[in-house]
Each structure stands twice: as C-alpha cells, then as structure tokens.
Amino acid sequence: MDQDANSHPKRLMRWPEVERLTGISRATLTNMAARGDFPRPVQVSTHITAFLSHEVFEWLEELESRRVNYSPKRFNRAGVKS
Prior knowledge:
There is one protein chain. This protein is 35% helix and 13% strand. It has helices at 15-22, 26-35, 53-63, and strands at 12-13, 42-45, 48-52. Strands 1-3-2 form a three-stranded antiparallel beta sheet. β2 and β3 form a beta hairpin.
C-alpha cells in the first residue's frame, strides 16, 4: 500500500465510517459530493460504493485553512455587551 510519512494508508471507507469520521450525514455528504465540495465515492461492485480514505483525509486536512475567524466580544460581568 502507498503511504507517505505524513499520510494515511490508502484503503476503502464505507458510508457509516465516513459519517462517523466527519460528523456529517450521508444526505449532506451526497449533496456536497455532487457540488464538488467533498470527494465522490467509487463503485467497488454492483452493490458497493466506498470512499478512498486518502481523499477523505485530504479533505479534512484542507479544512484547517478554512477556519472561521471570530472576533471576541466583550461582555461585562452582568453579561451585557459593552
């Protein structure tokens, strides 16, 4: 199996594992894949589709560059914004 020092082994991941790993539902992942926002699964056999694990992990790693910048809001002790 191909594996770089900083990567994960290439293997197949079925839907339940991808859902657990990402915390995103199958329906949302399907929509994201259709838009090109998530890797598309591959057809392994007539009744089996799966994801290539290295593509899923690459997608997760790319998310780090898309962090949301929140500016801290200041509140006084009463919880009122100052």
